[in-house]
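Here is an idea for our session: we take a single protein and study its fold together. Once you have written the record down, we can walk along the chain together.
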Amino acid sequence: MKTNFLKYSVLIIATAFTTAATAQKKPVTHKAHTFSGYSNMYSEDGGREKIKTDENGTEYELTLENGKAVELYVNGTKIDESKFGDYKGVIDHLKEQIRLAKIQAKKDQAQALLDQAQAKRDQEQAVKDQAQAKRDQEQAMRDQDQAKRDQEQAGRDQLQAKKDAEEARKAEAEAKLDQAQAARDQVQAKRDQEQAMRDQAQAKLDQKQAEEDQRVMRLITADLIKDGLVADEQSLHSLTISPNGMTVNDKQVPDEVYKRYKTKYSRFANSAFSFENSNNSHSIRISKPSH
């Protein structure tokens, strides 16, 4: 079973998901979310995928096998395969959404691995800095020992006393510089360790937020098709939701439609959310609304 990964930033989120299972593994079920009068469930087992939704008391259940729709139920009543054409928009959208999501999820997983690798490099560098700090301290001690020997030699040799004393003073100054450098190296090593911990924590937060956002985007797209705002996923070229209104393909939606989406997807609606679909390239942007 592969785990979904997604890179998240304050301004841009790439939405996607991926799942894979062998015949020996149990099916995986994802409970997406439950709102007032609406819920969504997705599961997969090998090449068989099932999507089950319930909206305001009407239940839909679609089963795909190796990418092909094989069963469709509405309120528990099985729809004959000959009538699948009546639900082509929904079926095609779900199939295409899964395909595109899996492609994007692979990219997100690769980025998550890069982030983890960078965190590991930061930790390794911190260890190297600590080792260097220890070497500097040892060198400082050796320099101090050498200064002491130089001073003793000056006492034994009066003719060389002045020259040896000056050399000793120089050695002592160098030892202080080495000690100061060792202290700076220790401070830097601590900063590197703290940064590595922050990087790891941020990577976990990014993965968690990305999974939530990809789930909500799938729900929004499905709702747009069910509400007749777009025919299918390919027909959705742009979408915006903000505190001031909602547009689909650059067209303002009626207020009553906007209010439903604003209530259902309040986190997106209370921000400046936009979706673009151009040449099979999807992009999502979420930013704080300007005041």
About this structure: The mean pLDDT is 81. The chain is about 50% helix and 25% strand.
